[in-house]
Amino acid sequence: MDHPMDSSADENIVEESHKLVDSLDKLRVSAASSSSNFKKKPVIIIVVGMAGSGKTSFLHRLVCHTFDANKRGYVLNLDPAVMSLPFGANIDIRDTVKYKEVMKQYNLGPNGGIMTSLNLFATKFDEVVSVIEKRADQLDYVLVDTPGQIEIFTWSASGAIITEAFASTFPTVVTYVVDTPRSTSPITFMSNMLYACSILYKTRLPLVLAFNKTDVADHKFALEWMEDFEVFQAAIQSDNSYTSTLANSLSLSLYEFYRNIRSVGVSAITGAGMDDFFKAIEASADEYMETYKADLDKRKAEKEQLEEERREKEMEKLRKDMESSQGGTVVLNTGLKDKDAAEKMMVEEEDDEDFKIEEDSDDAIDEDEEDEEMNRFYV
Ligand SMILES: Nc1nc2c(ncn2[C@@H]2O[C@H](COP(=O)(O)OP(=O)(O)O)[C@@H](O)[C@H]2O)c(=O)[nH]1
Ligand SMILES: [Mg+2]
Fold first, then answer.
1. What pLDDT digit, counting tens, does each position of 252-286 carry?
2. 64 CA to middle of ligand 2, Å?
3. Which helix (H) or strand (E) holds 45?
4. Which residue's CA is the closest to the ligand 1 atom numbered 8?
5. Is the bond preceding residue 42 a cis peptide, omega within 30 degrees?
6. Model's pTM, two decimal places?
7. Angle between helices 229-238 and 220-227 (to 10 degrees)
8. Is 208 inside any structural domain?
9. The pLDDT of residue 324
10. Per-residue model confidence as pLDDT tens digits over 116-140
11. Quick one: how far is CA 191 from the chain centroid?
């Protein structure tokens, strides 16, 4: 059977998780080294959203738009299970990992297969970042498509590794695609917003809400709900299925979230809203430089400071240890076992002393010497 990965044949999941950790270390190193030559371009656009919200179609639209606008885009497909892509991807996870083989080999279902494929790919992600770094001067945007099921990317270690790897090297913006016609119920809308909110706080990256499929349903209702709390409250109240106080209080806390994000209405099919979308991306990239990058640098400096302090403490400890051991001081352990050993040692010392006394005393005669004297006597 062909191995799903191009490299060695008998790896197992445990090994892969080790590799994942290794790759995280590698990425940390590359992130640290790249901080000095951080580039303002390209802007990474990571497209996430619920299954069927239109991520892949939207990405296709973005590819067409960047091409028409004479912008240089680079496309990355992270969905191992997609049958066919409407665009040509520069880097495609399917070229590296065969998702069906992963399912067979690790005996997994479709979601486990996608997740493991993404983990396998994440182990190679430092290479992906360096490929993009090499082309950075010639690129304006890197467009990233993610697996259909949102949680595979947003709640997995590999998704976090990939996002962090990008965010520590280039300005990175997350785009959350919303299926507008399916979010017209206030409760569905709120669930979707809570999910987007959790992504914002998890990644700490600028977030753009792309209300997709506006050719089917206008996103005006969503903007009204986000702008005016009372309008949304009224909508919740009229929704008989769910009128609990929980929904009310949750919706209130979401207002803080709405203030931190940009939202645009788009249609992947008609291409509506593209200019507004790219304006939101540019503003978000600036925001990245002002907030995320600054925060990243601060965190890095704090980490370095802590590391420096730790190193100094260790050195101080070592210096003290050396000073105290110079005079030959040995700290005795008073554990039971050692106590026996210490007693033994004392007995032996006593023996030595006895022997010394005998040896030093004038009466003491060595056996051999005695024999010698006897021999002389009888000769
Ligand atoms: N009417 C309409 N349909 C769309 C739009 N964007 C995507 N779709 C449809 O939504 C379905 C799911 O799209 P897809 O891009 O595969 O979603 P993904 O799973 O998020 O990648 C497909 O049938 C698309 O044709 C849009 O802007 N308008
Ligand atoms: Mg897709």
1. 889 889 988 999 999 999 999 999 999 999 999 99
2. 17
3. strand 43-49
4. 54
5. yes
6. 0.75
7. 110
8. yes
9. 75
10. 999 999 999 999 999 999 999 999 9
11. 25
Q: How far is the CA of 94 from the centre of ligand 2 (A)?
A: 13
CA of 191 to the centre of ligand 1 (A): 20
Measured CA to CA, the distance from residue 328 to residue 269 in angstroms comes to 82
Position 376 pLDDT exceeds 70: no
Residue 281 is part of a domain; what is its CATH number?
Answer: 3.40.50.300
Q: How confident is the model at residue 20 (pLDDT cuts 50, 70, 90)?
A: low
Sign for the CA dihedral angle at 46, 51, 53, 55 comes to positive
Q: How high is the pLDDT of residue 337? A: 53
The CA 47 to ligand 2 mean position distance, Å, reads: 10
Q: How high does pLDDT run on average in the chain? A: 82
The pLDDT of residue 343 is above 90? no
Distance 340 CA to ligand 2 centre (A): 72
> Is 158 part of a structural domain of the chain?
yes
Mean pLDDT of 312-319: 88
**How many angstroms separate the alpha carbon of residue 358 from the centre of ligand 1?**
103
pLDDT of residue 23: 59
Ligand 1, atom 2: nearest CA belongs to which residue? 213
Q: Which residues line ligand 1 (CB under 6 A)?
A: 49, 51-57, 148, 212-213, 215-216, 267-269
Domain total of the chain: 1
Find the mean pLDDT for residues 310-339.
71
Give the residue, out of 46, 47, 48, 57, with the most ligand 1 atoms within 8 A of its beta carbon, to mutate for a pocket test.
57
The residue whose C-alpha atom lies closest to atom 3 belonging to ligand 1 is: 213
Structure tokens at 7: 């490299």
| Cα(230)–Cα(124) distance, integer angstroms | 49
Counting atoms of ligand 1 from 1, which one is nearest the CA of 267?
Answer: 27
| Boundaries of domain holding 66 | 43-298
Contacts of 24 (CB under 8 A, 6+ apart): 161
Residue 64 within any structural domain of the chain: yes
The whole-number pLDDT of residue 136 equals 94
Which ligand 1 atom is nearest residue 53's CA? 20
- Quick one: which atom of ligand 1 is closest to the CA of 266? 27
The residue whose CA is least distant from atom 19 of ligand 1 is 52
Asked if residue 366 is part of any domain, the answer here is: no
Nearest by Cα to 276 from 354, 366, 210, 219: 210
Atom of ligand 1 nearest to the CA of 58: 6
